[in-house]
Structures are given as C-alpha cells and as structure tokens.
Amino acid sequence: MRVQAEIDVAAPPELVWDFVTDPTRYLHFMNGVTRWEVASEQERGCGARYRMLMRVGSADVGGLVEIVEHEEPRDLAWTSVTGIDQRGRWRLRERAGGVRTRVELRLQYSVAGAGVAGWLAEQIAAPTVRENLRRSLRELKRQVEHEQARAGAAARRAAAQR
Amino acid sequence: MRTQTASARSRNGHNANGNPFAGDATKAQEPAPDAGRNPIERLLSAFAGAIRTRVPVADLDERDPDYIRESLPGLWLLASLWFRGEVRGLGNIPEDGAVLLVGNHSGGNATPDTLVFTLAFSTYFGVERRFYQLAHSLVLSMPGLGFLRKYGTVAASPQNAERALSSGAALLVYPGGDHEVHRPTWEGNTVNFDGRRGFVRLALEHNIPIVPVVAIGGQETALFLTRGEGLSRRLMLDRLFRLKVLPISIAAPWGLNIGDMFGHIPLPAKITVEVLPAIDLREQFGPEPDVDEVYEHVIATMQETLDALAAERRLPILG
Q1: C-alpha–C-alpha distance, residues A87 and A68, integer Å
Q2: N or C, fewer C-beta in 10 Å, chain B?
Q3: Is the model's pLDDT at B11 over the cut of 60?
C-alpha cells in the first residue's frame, strides 16, 4: 500500500529540511507517531537508524528504519530494517523562487508473506495512515511557518537596533 | 487459551498432556463420584498416562518469528475490528532482558486478552524480542492449536519457565489460569489468582521484575455461568488431567456450552489492557521479600487498576 500527502509551506526548503531531518522533532509534528528514537550512533544522514512506531488500530506499528537517501535539502528517504516492510520519503521542492516549499510525504508499507489478511489489513489501515500523514503535514507547516515568522521578526529587530 | 503458573503445575511435575475430548469420554462413562480404584478409573488412568507420554518436550526453539510476523496482520484485523483492542503502558515493560509479565485472564478458552496483548507486544518490541507464554498443557494439545507453539506458547512447568527466563526472554503467565478464565461473568471485574503464588517465587528466583498486565472485557465475550468444579471432581477430570473445572456458559455458536472444549465465538467486547509499572521485588520489599506480601501487593495493585478500567466502561461489550 502506498499513501502520500502534500502541502505548500511558506518557508524556504532549507528550513523545512531542518525539521524533517531532526529526529527529536518527529514526536511533535507527526500525528499518530508514538515513538521516534535514534537507534544508531549517527543521528542524521545516510545510515542513521530510528526506532519508530505509529498507532494504527489496536497496535503501534513500525520498527527499525534506516535513512538511505539524504540529499540536502531535497530528498530524505528511509527503508525498514525490522518490523513491517516500509519505505518513506520526504520530497521538498522549492516554489516561488525559493521562498515557498512544496512538501510531499510518501509511505509505502506491507507485510510480505501475510497473504489475504495482510492485503486486507493494508487496505483497512490506509485511511488512518493517510489521515495521519495529512495532519502531520499540517502540523509541520504550522511549526515551520511559526519558526519562519519568529526568525523574520528577530532579524527585523536586529536590523532596527543597528 | 488457558494458562497458569508453574506453581500450579508442580503438583504433577511433568508436562502432562491430555486428550481434549476427555471431557466427553469420561462423561460417557459416568464414574461414581467416590469411585476408588475401580476398573473404570484404572482404565482412565492408563488412558491419561498414555496421552501424557505423547507430549513432545517443550522446545523454546519452536517459536518462529517469521511466522509471528506474517500472522500479525490477521491478529491486527481481529484485535482492531472485532475487539477494538486498546493496550496502554507498553513503555512500562523494560526494554530488554528477562521480565515476568503477570496477567489476569478472561474469556473462557477463547481468550481475547492474550490475542490483543500478544499483538501489541510483538509490534511494539518487534518479533525479534524473545517472548514466551505459559499455557495449560491441554491447550497445547488441542487439535488445531499447534500454531500456538510458534508464538512461543509452552506448557506451564517450572522447567519451561526456568528455561525461558534464563534465555533472557519476556515470559507471560496467567496465574489464575483455568480457575480465573472460567469465572462467572458477574465476577468479570475481579482479579482471582486462586492463591497461586508460584509466579512470585519465580520472579524472586530469577531476580527479575514483575510487570502486571491488567485486562478488561474478556468475561463479556460470552455469558459464563459457573466453573463447574464439582462436576469436574465427580468426573475425575481433576485427577486425570489436572482440569479442575468443567465450565458451563452460554456462548456462540453452541448456545449452552459445557466444557468449552472446542472454544466458542467470542462476542465483540471491547478489550482494554493496561500494563503497569514494573515491580522490582528486592528494591520494594527488601532483600528477602515475603512471598505472601508480594502476592497480596500484586493482586491489590491489579485490582485497583481493574476497578479503574471498570469505572471507565460505560456499557458491557460496547465498552
């Protein structure tokens, strides 16, 4: 099953990138995510591992994931090491000459070998997962734009003092 | 799935097994309540003995993580759609190392609390974490229930508990076992371990924490009327198969369900499970903890939580 959500954020890709590559922020903006812990010495970049879980139905589903693509500030992708089979990707693309960002979050998940029950579970879980991604993006947008406004105000204050 | 602790098993001290149809077989022969060593009893003893010798020795290696992983979507569907399962406090279980999970058990022979908890544990910690459950040997010998071994269910015996904990696994026990699981529906919100304290000794011997796991809703999956302990005694099931109960309930699809040997279709009652903070026995009760004191403490803590969960519940079944 593949689900995705996208949103426009009124901030440059570099700022959004800071949010999506920071493992400590995930619990704050990812809806339904109950765990996102660093599980490797390396905290960011290719090879960094996170233990993540998302509440779907009766269970916290997820597992250990590893970052496999880290192309600043455009693409961040991970794949599962243990737990359910999953691939996730953040796609950030600049809009309006770099002052806005198109953010896309994709998640592909399945349990290989689980047969009909697996297929059915994927379908039934999809609306919950999709809604979680949508809400996560809305929350990400809110936080990034807040940060952008805060940074802008601070810069203006600094300029006025000079 | 009826489970019980090592203590309850130690009476016979071996991995007894039995014929799941024994209830019917013995009933058909109707021995007198106070029969001594009459020919019928001798015959039945021989029969039970023959079955015992056929029990395969419990092998922890029968647990199959790939099998568990591939079956999780099915469990998830059942737990999410049918039982609307909700598990809280999994973070209270230590991240690694041996731990004794002690649960209250409900729902006759089709126990939804075990299903919901096993799913939650396996997805939370991953199927890679070693996780075993102790069960009544009759459960493991039921035709069609062999798959439970792949989940890590082993016959409850001191040896198996010892082996599982020594391997650093998490071990789930239901001290109340068959006594608790068949309690009448109106006692559904009572923790009843029938005084079985084996789990406390087990935790002390291995110096591992006890994590109470409290579940509600299981006793609403059928109308449980009585444990039928007298009936079981009169049919000698207790002596032959260590089956101290012959429960009577009204359950789908049978209507009147005597013995619950073939299980039943549980009603879709909402199952809520709450995992409580780990109890470090030596830290809390001193270097030589008193078994009775610990037992009472665990029961009281679990009952308190069960009362809170019951207060939260507005309607039976719907939750």
Answers
A1: 10
A2: C
A3: no
B250-280 burial, b if ≥16 CB within 10 A, otherwise e? ebeeeeebbbbbebbebbbbbbbbbbbebbe
Q: Do A115 and B76 touch (CB under 8 A)?
A: no
Strand pairing category for B210-216 and B272-275: antiparallel
Question: What is the rounded CA–CA span in Å between residue B202 and residue B192?
Answer: 19
- A102-133 burial code (b ≥16 CB/10 A, e <16): bbbbbbebbbeebeebbebbbebbbebbeebb
Give the C-alpha separation, B319 to B313, whole Å: 5
Q: Quick one: closest CA in A to B116, which residue?
A: A58
Q: Which of A143, A103, A137, A146 is nearest to A32 (CA)?
A: A137
Query: How many whole angstroms separate alpha carbon B309 and alpha carbon B85?
Result: 13
Distance in Å, alpha carbon of A120 to nearest chain B alpha carbon: 8
Judge whether residue A153 has pLDDT over 60: yes
C-alpha span between B272 and B214 (Å, rounded): 8
What DSSP assignment string belongs to B120-163?
A: HHHHHH-TTS-EEEEE-HHHHHSTT-THHHHTTEEE--HHHHHH
Selected residue of A52, A56, A58, A64 to mutate for chain B interface (largest B Cβ count, 10 A): A58
pTM for the structure as a whole: 0.86
